[in-house]
Amino acid sequence: MPDDIFEDTYLGDYSDYLPFLKWMEKKFDCSGLCTAANLYLFSDINRGVPDGSCRQEIYDWIQDNFLTYGIIALAFGLFQV
């Protein structure tokens, strides 16, 4: 019950994005999306200072992963025609 009150009061609809932010921080060793944060939000702060913001890391990850899927989808689409 107290967790629900906290989420409703302070987080609202943003609580849906917390698992993504946690995954991003662990995977890319960064903190903050647009602006680099000096502390981790979801990881142990004893890990030191984050490498920077996650913006470029996310951009590179999207380029690497979705470019491959796009090429495969395009190939299958052309094969169907």
How would you describe the overall organization of this protein?
- The chain is built from 3 helices and no strands.
- With 81 residues, it is mainly α.
- The protein has one domain.
- It is elongated, with a radius of gyration of 18 Å.
User: Structural class of the helix and strand makeup?
Assistant: mainly alpha
Tell me the span between the first and last alpha carbons: 55 Å
Query: Would you identify the regions where 5 or more consecutive residues have pLDDT less than 50?
Result: none
Series of H and E elements: HHH
Number of strands: 0
- Indicate how many domains the architecture comprises: 1
Short synopsis of the structure:
This protein is an all-alpha fold and 81 residues long. It is 58% helix and 0% strand. It is elongated, with a radius of gyration of 18 Å.
Name the features.
mainly alpha; 3 helices
List the helices and strands and how they pair.
Blueprint: H1 2-11, H2 18-28, H3 55-80
